[in-house]
Amino acid sequence: MQTQFRQYLDVERLFKGLFTRHLKTVVVGLVLASLLTLLLYTTPTTTSFILSATSYSVSAGVMMDEDEPRCLPNQHVMFLKTHKCASTTVQNIFLRYGYTHNLTFALPSGGNYLGNPKFFKASMIPNKLMPRHGKVDLFAVHSRLNPPEHKRILYNDTRWITIVREPSTLYESLFNFFHMKHGYGFDLSQFSTRPMSELESLPRYGGKFGKNQMLFDLGYQVDMSVTELRSAIEQLDKLFDLVMISEYMDESLVLLRHLLCWSLHDVVVFAKNARRQEVKPTLEPQTQQALRELNSADVLLYNHFVAKHRRTVYEFGVQRMANEVSALRSLRDEYYEDCGAREVKGRDSSLKFKEYSGLVSAYVTANNSDQNCLMLSMPELPIVDFIRRRQKLLLNVDKLS
């Protein structure tokens, strides 16, 4: 055990500068606070102009409305990871946050799946990775939703989050990323010339990929009546505290940080597992229409949550949202520069941690001594493996104490 712990400490040393960026932000915040104090007592006219010109105050790197009530960060999250919806990007946020704050995760013994195509069951989590009291702080790996079983291993105050994407582009991404033409015997461009009855009867590729993918991941049958579908959407609306929208990622990240009472730093992320622009095909209008018809249940699901997203942004404040999105993008650019990040192909020889596919972008960072920089650049499987090793060691040490 001592040898294991020394190995773990060696790994920890690779992640130096754990709180470097946050410490830097706190110092900047204190300097700004001092300057504002001086202004308040020496130049009241100028100060009044400054304070009226901005609706935000800066405190330890967190942008917050002046009239926004103070809150405590929520560290219990259930993130249902939907396929090809930019969910790996969002997952990276939760993995980094949980690691930094010493939180526990729901993890499989290997890989990144806890159920799917099978429904999730609490028994899928091995004992060696489960805390003694039977609850985990974060759930952020692939799973097929099964609320009663998920709730068995989650705290009562857990926030439920997922993400959706426009169904025709989701299906195109799914089809090409997993090379589904090899199983179906024809390319995506032929979907507009095939009878819809034939397309609807196609089996799920590998048992898990196919039409109405979001509803499948969310635990529903994909062939429902309109009445059943509307009931399912209402159930999901009540269950999830936030349904993020892939096409409105930055706005969704702002809503996420307010839901969880996290800082903008916590929701900075580099795009993960996203195909490079040069390998993305352009869908012909007739193909796109065929895909929307094939995935009509997902279209209703998506339209519902896009409409809800727009209402939420309106209630949040359109200008307030624009201000925070601008701040988030500037902060992301700062991280990109400070980390010395550059984008490469996912299987590039210079990568220490290879992506699952060569079709996607990956990141090489010059500053690997900074924890955030390293974890921002890591693909899903290596970062899940790292967290699993650490959790196994920590839980074993805890059981021995």
How would you characterize the overall build of this protein?
This protein is of the alpha/beta class. The protein has 16 helices and 8 strands. It has helices spanning 2-13, 20-42, 44-53, 87-100, 147-152, 167-177, 181-184, 196-200, 213-217, 226-239, 249-260, 285-294, 296-316, 318-338, 371-377, 380-400, and strands spanning 56-59, 62-65, 77-80, 138-139, 159-164, 242-245, 341-345, 361-365.
Please describe the topology of this protein.
Elements: H1 2-13, H2 20-42, H3 44-53, E1 56-59, E2 62-65, E3 77-80, H4 87-100, E4 138-139, H5 147-152, E5 159-164, H6 167-177, H7 181-184, H8 196-200, H9 213-217, H10 226-239, E6 242-245, H11 249-260, H12 285-294, H13 296-316, H14 318-338, E7 341-345, E8 361-365, H15 371-377, H16 380-400
Parallel strand pairs: 3-4, 3-5, 5-6
Antiparallel strand pairs: 1-2, 7-8
DSSP, total strands: 8
**Apparent shape:** globular
How large is the share of residues in beta strands? 5-15%
How many helices? The count is 16
Could you state the order of secondary-structure elements as H and E?
HHHEEEHEHEHHHHHEHHHHEEHH
Derived structural class = alpha/beta
User: Helicity range of the residues?
Assistant: 40-55%
Q: Could you tell me the mean pLDDT?
A: 83
Strand arrangement, major sheet: 4-3-5-6
Largest sheet: 4 strands, parallel
Terminal CA distance: 12 Å
Rg from C-alpha positions? 23 Å
Low-confidence stretches: 4-11, 13-63
